[in-house]
Every structure is written in C-alpha cells, then in structure tokens.
Design a protein that fits this description.
By secondary structure, the protein is an alpha/beta fold. The protein has helices at residues 8-15, 74-87, 104-112, 138-151, 175-191, 207-217, 249-254, 281-285, 328-340, 380-389, 402-418, 423-427, 445-459, 483-490; strands at residues 2-3, 25-28, 31-34, 42-46, 66-68, 91-94, 116-120, 157-164, 197-203, 231-236, 261-267, 296-299, 315-317, 324-326, 392-394, 430-431, 436-437, 473-475, 505-507, 524-526, 532-534, 544-546, 549-551. Pfam families: Glyco_hydro_72, X8.
Length: 552
C-alpha cells in the first residue's frame, strides 16, 4: 500500500493543532485512567527509525549506536500520520529524542490526532544506564531532565521510560540504578507538577527472572522515596501466528497482583511466519482476562528494521524519504486494530482503586543479582566543585568518549595500584550487587576519570608526563593539591533529594549526520548529546579536540 505524502487530509490533520488539550492520563493503583475516570488502554506502535548497529561483544543485544530523532522531523510525521490513523493507534513509543531540537510539528500533529507519546529518555552509547558496569551519574540525570524540560510543554506525553532491556537474563546488577533513575525522575516530575508517568521496558525471559525484576521495580525500597515505576512494560514476543488463546495464561497469573500499571511495551513475534504477522494476539490482549492485568500494548514496529532483514516493521521508506510503502504486516494490524475499535473494558472503575499506593515491602534474598540499596541522587553542584579543583583533567578526544574511557580507567587504576593506592578507584566505583557506591561514583564519567588521573599525578609529585595518559589529559594549573580531601569537602555525604533543573547547555557545533531530505537537518545524531558542553563549574574538562587544537 502506498500513498503520496502531502494529501490534503494529511496536511490538514498534521497542522490542525488546537488549544483543546488531550485528557491527562494517570495511574490509580494498577490501572490507567483519563480525567473523567475512564480506563485507558495503550493501543500503540513503536515509532523510531533504526540507527546504525555495530555488533560486538560489548553490544550483545545489538543496540544502535546512533539514532534519528523522528519527533523532530515535521515533514516525516506528516508523511506517516495518515498511516498511523489507518492503524487507529492512540499512542506511539519513541526510543530516543534530541532535547536541543524543535519537536512542535510532530507533537502538535500527533496531539491533534489523539496520539499520546511514550518517550524513552535514554540515548545510545554514553546516554543510557548500561547492562554491565552501570552508573547513575550527573550526565545521565541532566540528560534525562533536559529531555523532560523539552517535552513537558506538550499535552500528549503519556510516560517517560528510564530504560529499555537493561536487565538481562544473565545479570540484574543494573536494577538499583534503574530504580534510582525512576526515583529521581519521578521526584523532578512531581516538583514541576507534571502528570507524566515513569516507566521501564523489560526484556522477556524465564519466569523467575521476569517476575523478580518486575517486583524489584514496584516494591517499597527504603531509600526509594516512593520512586517505584508507574508503568511496567514487557517486550514480549511469545505469541506467534495463530497461537492458542491460552498463550498468555501463565504470564497473566504471575502478574495478577502486580501493584502498578503494566502493558506490552513491544509485541509482534516474527519467528513462525517472518514478514507476514497476523496479529491475532490483539483481540486477546484487549479483552478479559488479559485486561484484568494489562493495559494494552505497542506493536513493534512501524519502520522496518534494516539489521533484521526488514523484519519487525511494516513501513519502508522511499529512497528520498518522502513516501512510505506498507506491507502485509501493516494491512493485518489495521484489520485487527480496526476490529478492536475503542470499545475497551471500563472496569474496574477508578473509584474502586486505592487513593494512595500500597506497595509491597521489598523482600530479602532476591532471586536476582542486585542489592536493595539504591545509589544517591547525582549532585551537579558537588561534582562541579570537585571538577574545578582537580589537577589532572581528562580531555575527551571524541564526542563519544566511551571508546577510550574504559581503557583509560584501567590504565589509571593499574598505575595507582602499583603505587599502593586502591581506594581512589573504589571512590569512583558503583556496585549494584553489593549496594556500595563510592563517593565520586555519582559524578559524570569524565570527572570520575579526572579524579583517578589526579590522584596518580599527585602521587608522582607532578612529574612531567604524569598527566598525559597518551594525550588524553591535561594539567589544570588552577587546581588544588589534595584530591582525596577535595572530594570529602565537595561531597561530604551523598543523599537522596529532589533534583533541580539541569545546567544550561551551550552549543559547540551543529550536527547534520544523515538527515532526511524530507525532514529537519540535524535530526540524526551519534550517541548522547555529546557536541555540547554545560555552562558551570566543570565546563573546562568537557572541551573537544579539533585536530591539535582544543576548543571550549
């Protein structure tokens, strides 16, 4: 099926944003409700063009290393809106957005069409809590809050996700960091009187793994300050083809008493009939007994996944990106979503739900490798104080500093160990298994690396070359001796608090990587919003090398 981009109907709908706001959706107990008390179900689809994937041992799930901000491309949203309306969706899920770009055209057009947005706050590379060696630090918190500040002006933000498939079947050490992110994001949303929900999208796996991680995200952590997630998403592909209606029975039973709202953040198995999904799970998902437990789902996905041989998608872009060709997946989902309509169950009524959360206590002896102790709230002021005084400072050679940071940490910590200092690297470490978080672990990775480099530089008494690290560091002549004491002074004790607005970003250079001819230049970006520096105490360490000249 193929339609020309700029039909009169498409343009009229895309531009017809009015002052009439979409009704707010909130969670009461374990269900979602609109302002008039009607139960709300997510009838959605994933909406994100796949970025570049670099396979390797450090990327077991084949996550993209770049992304295209579809919500910043007004022409593309106008192109796609008629198809989304054919599907009859009331929500899309977007996996990354660039907070420095303008999203008015897309967000207003989707709002006018009655489409909510579930937005992941994460970015590829150094913009996410990672599965191995996770952290919850100032750079991530600031990035999350900037994205929130960018999107809070729109009435159709349903939820912000703090992670996607971070915990895997082999490790759950990132769980405390996910919970800390949910806690701090939720506190910030409450402070700005936002109605948006806080969510997480989990990978499916064996029953014990899924159940224990789900419980961890929705229990009453002693230092969680009410920060349990509002919306648990499960990326589930167990239904395939014309599966039996009892396929979800076990899952339903296991989540029968889950205390917060749950939905299928991705669904649509390909294995049994690649390229021709029949979507017969839809009527099952949106009727009892499933609706007693779940609040809908988002089909995966709108755009074809190039890395998967065009699987898991239903819309293929033309060579100039101005038009779309849909396939049988799309036609079949239109059929199922149309038959579904909007006649969702209305029970239980909102009035029957508890007015306040009654989260279960977190059990001891988890069946997952994670501590119940959560990391503290990252503190920009404290970390900036430390960064200002460090004598030897890391200078990222590329915007994606992750490519060198691991090796440099290894070198610096090895050198310190040879000199008898093992504490400095513990100061910058965070262990989600033991629940031990070093004093400096909440700071930006560049500050953490500068901290251990400075400790080595001081132990070598400022010897020439001791602050080189193969050209990745430079001496800060306005710094202060006594790195350990400086850390104690700047960060006397970590704590949990409501974060404030993040530091202001100052653009260094524009990006226009891979932008669509039908879209906004700069909508494609590599990794986190790396070509910016923040105006504040630590700005001096975030310079970028251009040839042999460092610019600030």
């Amino acid at each position: 099926m193929r339609l020309h981009l700029y039909s009169a109907l498409a343009l009229a709908t895309a531009l017809a944003w009015t002052a009439a706001a979409l009704p707010k959706v909130s969670r009461t107990g374990r269900y979602l409700y609109t302002e008039d008390g009607t139960r709300f179900f997510i009838k959605g689809i994933a909406y994100q063009t796949q970025g570049q994937i670099v396979p390797g041992p450090d990327n077991p799930l084949n996550q993209p290393s770049t992304f295209v901000d579809n919500l910043a491309d007004g022409n593309a949203c106008a192109r796609d809106l008629p198809y989304l309306q054919q599907l009859g969706v009331n929500a899309i899920r977007a996996y990354s957005a660039n907070s420095s770009l303008n999203h008015d055209d897309c967000m207003h057009a989707f709002s006018a069409a009655g489409i909510y947005v579930i937005l992941d706050l994460t970015l590829p590379l150094n913009g996410s809590i990672v599965t191995t060696q996770p952290s919850w630090s100032t750079n991530l918190l600031d990035q999350f809050l900037r994205t929130i500040d960018t999107f809070e002006q729109y009435d159709n933000v349903l939820a912000y996700n703090v992670g996607n498939e971070v915990m895997t079947s082999t490790t759950s050490e990132a769980a405390p960091f996910i919970m800390a992110a949910a806690r701090d994001v939720k506190a910030y949303l409450n402070s700005i009187q936002s109605s948006a929900l806080v969510g997480y999208a989990a990978i499916n796996g064996n029953d014990t793994f899924v159940d224990n991680n789900a419980q961890f995200l929705a229990c009453d952590h002693p230092d969680g300050d009410g920060g349990a997630i509002d919306l648990y998403g499960l990326n589930d592909y167990q239904w395939c083809g014309n599966a039996s209606s009892d396929t979800f029975d076990s899952l339903n039973q296991r989540f029968a008493n889950y205390p917060v709202a749950a939905y299928f953040s991705e669904f649509g198995g390909e294995n049994c009939n690649p390229g021709v999904r029949v979507w017969t799970e839809v009527p099952v998902m949106f009727s009892a007994p499933m609706t007693n437990v779940w609040s809908g789902g988002a089909a995966f996905g709108y755009f074809s996944a190039m890395s998967q041989g065009h699987q898991f998608g239903m819309a293929t872009l033309s060579s100039d990106n101005t038009s779309i060709t849909t396939d049988a997946d799309f036609t079949n989902l239109v059929s199922e979503y149309t038959a579904l309509g909007t006649n969702f169950p209305t029970t239980p009524p909102q009035s029957a739900q508890p007015k306040t959360d009654n989260l279960p206590s977190c059990p001891t002896g988890w069946g997952i490798t994670a501590s119940g102790a959560l990391p503290p709230t990252p503190d920009d002021a404290a970390c900036g104080c430390l960064a200002d005084g460090l004598l030897c400072q890391f200078v990222p050679p590329t915007p994606d500093y992750t490519v060198v940071m691991g090796d440099l940490f290894g070198v610096a910590c090895g050198l310190l160990a040879n000199l008898g200092d093992t504490q400095s690297c513990l100061d910058v470490s965070a262990d989600g298994v033991s629940g031990v978080y070093g004093r400096v672990a909440m700071c930006d990775p560049t500050i953490r690396l500068s901290y251990v480099m400075s400790q080595y530089y001081e132990l070598e008494h400022g010897a020439e070359g001791a602050c080189s690290f193969l050209g990745n560091a430079t001496v800060n002549y306005s710094g202060k001796a006594g790195t350990g004491g400086l850390a104690s002074k700047c960060i006397p004790s970590a704590s949990v608090f409501t974060p404030s607005a993040p530091p202001v970003l100052l653009p260094v250079s524009a990006t226009a990587s891979g932008s669509s001819t039908a879209g906004t230049k700069g909508a494609s970006i590599n990794g986190a919003e790396a070509k910016t520096i923040w105006v504040g105490a630590a700005a001096c360490i975030l310079g970028t090398f251009v040839g042999a000249v460092m610019v600030y």
